[in-house]
Structure formats: structure tokens, C-alpha cells
Design brief:
Helices cover 82% and strands 0% of the residues. By secondary structure, the protein is mostly helical. The radius of gyration is 34 Å and the shape is rod-shaped.
Amino acid sequence: MLSAESGELSDIDRQVAQSLAKQETLSQNIEAGFAENRTLGERLSDILAKFGGSWTFLILFALFLAIWMLVNSRGGTQPVDPYPFILLNLILSTIAAIQAPIIMMSQRRQEAKDRLRSLNDYQVNLKAELEIRHLHEKIDHLINNQWQRLAEIQQLQLETMAEKRK
């Protein structure tokens, strides 16, 4: 069916055809295989990206900034970073410079996982479509055979009725 519709078969089409012939399942858990192959750096960047995009991080960071500004804006003591908080700006810039590439690495791995999941979904959907088509062909074949058998029975009944009239 695939070669009749699209001409030359791709590797994915061949895999689906082979799984149909062998009656194997194609669906697989992409998450399990993908999680096993991560390095320590990848796991750490995923944890940092998850924490950096959470409400916990935002609340803790807002508290840190508020405490930093309160401590350094008191007039009676010698502040470590007086207003306009140049040291705080340096810290924030450094955090942003380090955090951005780490989050991008995590997003790149997520995109790769999404591509694998999409490929798996395509294969499963293609196999399901082919299975449904095959079932339709079987049902059409059964219906045609049933109509032929009904026509034969009807012909026999007509012949029997004709013989009884004579």
C-alpha cells in the first residue's frame, strides 16, 4: 500500500511495513531511553533549568534582592554595596550570563526528545492507518463474498420456486 501511494519507501516506511509483517508493536517509551543517556552536566542543567523556571526561584530571588537592598541602603552602617548597587548588578549579570546557556542546553535536549517522540508517534500512526486500511479491505472482501453467497442462495430459491410452479 505504501509503495503504491508514495512510490519509493523511506526507512521509516520500511520499519513500519516490517513491524506489520512481523506483527510487532512500534510504540516505545521515549522518556526512559532518553533519560538513561544523559551526562552529569546534562542532568545538572536540566535541574537548574527546572528550578530557574519555578515560582520557588522567583520568590527566593525576590527575597534575596529585597534583603540585599535593605541591608545596603541603611544609612547608619557602612554598606558593602551602596546605592546604585553596582555589585548587585554585577552579580545579576553574571547569573544571567551563566543561566541563559544552561537553559538553552536543556531546551535543546528537550527539542531532541520531542523530535524522537514525534517520529515514534508518526510510526505508530502510520501503522495504525495501515492496519485500519487492511481491516477495511477484509470487511469489504467479506461483504462482497456475503453478497455473492446471498445472490447464489436467492438464485437457488428462485429455481426451486420455478420448479414448484411447473
